[in-house]
Amino acid sequence: MTIKYCPHCNKMGKTRVLSDYEQVPWRGIMVKRRRVIHLIDDEGCGQTWYTVELPFEMLPDEDENDTG
Ligand SMILES: [Zn+2]
Fold first, then answer.
1. What is the Cα–Cα distance from 1 to 6, expressed in whole angstroms?
2. Residues of the chain with confidence (pLDDT) below 50
């Protein structure tokens, strides 16, 4: 169980990563796509969404001027 950002609640909460995943193409590389569920027992919404695992170096630089 990990703390992740929930796109449904727009807040951080306890989540569980489901065991099944698949490799999907993204910008010329393969990234690992996982389904995550927001746990209801932490007052979560119970909704699921996907996350992808990618190298940090692949992140866009659009926020480089936002040093907050
Ligand atoms: Zn949620």
1. 14
2. none
